[in-house]
Amino acid sequence: MALRVNIVSGDESWIYCYEPENKRQSAVWVFQGEEKPKKSSMVATFVSKAGRIATIPLNEQRTVTADCYTTICLPKVITELRKINPKRRIILHQDNASSHTAQKTRQYLTEENVELLDHPTYSPDPSPNDIVTFPKIKNRLRGRRFQSPEKAVGAFKNAVLDLPANEWNKCFENWFERMRMCINLRGEYFEKQ
């Protein structure tokens, strides 16, 4: 019988009300003493081979702390995964951001029986979010203007949900293949073949 595992990859990114093609296009006129409009919101997105697990708006966050990660992001992801299949083992892949590697985060994951798939330090090997979620979705939204960060995040979520299942499957298969190549070459750099 095949081992049933939920491998989930998570990361954070900024979502903008307007993603310009150059800096000049992002200029905004404001009167003296007037506040600049808020034009971005941070999101944490977690994906698996089957697709998006959760996209969590981090509206008031300028950075993601271990406290934010363990009280806002991870509980939502773990709850979603356990709704799908409560008996599956959960393996989480994340980069080495300080909020991801903090003792508080590691303790939380241990308490929730979530295993970590470590990301090698300074690894050039991008995660599924770096390959598909952020570049492809942001490119689809480029040139569109949103009235608020909340509307931009909503459009981002919808665009992620619209990605076909075979795209996620292909992304994870390519990621696994790159990891196998890296292991076979004992961590040496390799060109795409």
TrEMBL record:
<dbReference type="GO" id="GO:0003676">
    <property type="term" value="F:nucleic acid binding"/>
</dbReference>
<dbReference type="Pfam" id="PF13358">
    <property type="entry name" value="DDE_3"/>
</dbReference>
<dbReference type="InterPro" id="IPR036397">
    <property type="entry name" value="RNaseH_sf"/>
</dbReference>
<dbReference type="InterPro" id="IPR052709">
    <property type="entry name" value="Transposase-MT_Hybrid"/>
</dbReference>
<protein>
    <recommendedName>
        <fullName>Tc1-like transposase DDE domain-containing protein</fullName>
    </recommendedName>
</protein>
<dbReference type="InterPro" id="IPR038717">
    <property type="entry name" value="Tc1-like_DDE_dom"/>
</dbReference>
<feature type="domain" description="Tc1-like transposase DDE">
    <location>
        <begin position="28"/>
        <end position="148"/>
    </location>
</feature>
